[in-house]
Write a structure and sequence with these properties.
mainly alpha, about 110 residues
């Protein structure tokens, strides 16, 4: 049984090398424990708007007074929350989730 398990693990690791499923986190050159995540933007203006939306949405979500005294409309507030959700979607590691499914299957067989 243990020999079969080792064989499955070895096959799984070999398939990971071939398929390169770990794409979301990019290792930083100067550190063993740091990674970067790409976030696609069209330019500095969009980056500025994203950060601004993140801050505004966070204020709105965390502080009822900020929502009632906001100097921006509720439509703008909804757009800020939408931006926050779009960023979260870009950061989800979709390919890596397939690897977790494969690992889970191996775990269930042990």
């Amino acid at each position: 049984m243990e020999t079969e398990h080792k064989k499955q693990v070895t096959e799984f690791l070999e398939s990971m090398k071939r398929l390169n499923k770990f794409k979301k986190l990019k290792p930083e050159n100067n550190s063993n424990n740091s990674f970067s995540v790409n976030l696609k933007v069209s330019g500095y203006n969009e980056l500025n708007l994203m950060v601004s939306s993140l801050l505004k949405a966070s204020l709105i979500l965390l502080n009822d007074d900020a929502r009632s005294q906001a100097c921006f409309s509720f439509n703008e507030a909804d757009n800020n929350v939408m931006t926050l959700l779009e960023i979260a979607l870009q950061l989800l590691p979709e390919d890596e989730m397939e690897v977790l499914d494969d690992l889970h299957k191996l775990h269930l067989q042990v």
